[in-house]
Amino acid sequence: MPIHDWTRVASGTFHAFHTAWIAQLQECLNAxxxxxxxxxxxxxxxxxxxxxxxxxETPGPTPRAETDGEPAGGIAxxxxxxxxxxxxxxxxxxxLARRRSLAVRHASDDRVVALLEIVSQGNKSKRTALxxxxxKAVAALQQGYHLLIVDLYPPTRHVPDGIHSAIxxxxxxxGDASPSPARPLTLVAxxxxxxxxxxxxxVGVGDRLPDMPLFLTPERYVDVPLEMTYAAAWRGMPQRWxxxxxxx
Length: 248
Hints:
3-stranded antiparallel β-sheet, 7-stranded mixed β-sheet, alpha+beta, single chain, 248 residues
């Protein structure tokens, strides 16, 4: 299914779709995509932040990655690097010098592993909202939480080079993260290494969504089926808004 132009409808309409999409992503992650010791929760209360989906690991006597040398599940980057257009690793410790704090906890005390965020129009419509989103993203990486960000809105005057560019400017001083003019929407996965690595895939209206990595450890990930879950969420959209988004 091609990506729709969500600027054609009010933000509330996208929010309705966004809610359905989150539910589909949670179901997919928990239906066997994540390894047995991991699970996903949609829109949990998580301290100072409210990620769309929180990925957690249940506690064990030792981390899975350290048990008899066995990996923690998922796909190894060394064996199959994520299939994206651009991979960039920060070249400096610039982001460490501007450390932010972020309290992300779950009532179960299970270990927070990763955050998944679907960007809304409101995240980029005002400078204060943009700054809050960028601060949360950078702080999450500094805390060791991996990130997957899906941004289906084009750049705005507050973020003319896209959401990834704004985040990367806080991580790697002087780093070039400008989007493609032909594909101004952004999918980006961050592995919370020191320094972090970004896996960037630009897309545009009319494109199909590729799978994107959600990291469980700095070197292992699962491929999240964005296209399949997007299509599943779309099936529940009212015909009124289907016509608006699908018309020439």
